[in-house]
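Posted in: Protein Modeling Q&A

I'm a second-year student putting together a small comparison for a lab meeting, and my supervisor asked me to include a predicted structure for DNA-binding protein. I've never done this before, so apologies if this is the wrong subforum. The sequence is pasted below exactly as I got it from our records. If anyone can share the structure token output, I'd also love a short note on what stands out.
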Amino acid sequence: MARRTHQLAEQHGVSLRTLRVSWDELSDRLDGSPPFDVVFCVGNSLAHAEGASARFDALTAMSRLLSRDGHLVLTSRTWELVRARRSRLDVGPRLVRRQGRDAVVVYNWQIEQRWDEEHHLEIAVAQVTADGSVLTRSERLSCWPFRQEELVSQLHAVGLEVESNTFDPDAENYTVIAAKKERAQS
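Accepted answer (user: helix_wrangler)
Welcome! Here is the predicted structure, written out as tokens:
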């Protein structure tokens, strides 16, 4: 994602610094930087934080990066749907283009019994070459799913107030926009 963001910025003539940083390095790597008006946590990336505690730490780090009244924009899968469908193999419904080639995308979901267990998703892309042979690449990802209400609770706990939430229990994905609010002095 960082490489693609950098490529798009160059393509559009935008000066942009990109960094690959783990959740726990966010504050240290960006310490001393001016606060951000917006932080994006997209592509269902929060599900890769290793459990509720690590997810809380990631949200805390992102909240610390925000300016006063700054916003966090977060996208997530609807994990309630993913878990209800259990372990399965999903084959993409149509060909897609990847690197100029037709391809089929296959998702192998390994759903555990409990929410707090590590789940796995293997994504395989099978590309058809000009000579008719098939190139296959795959990547196995770990994820720790969460309920939408858990996310909202954790956002509130790190000092963020949800301003917009597109959650629909029947939709595949949703977006939450949360604003940093200064806590009242006691």
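A couple of things worth pointing out for your meeting: The chain has a mean pLDDT of 91. Residues 52-65 form the longest helix (14 residues).
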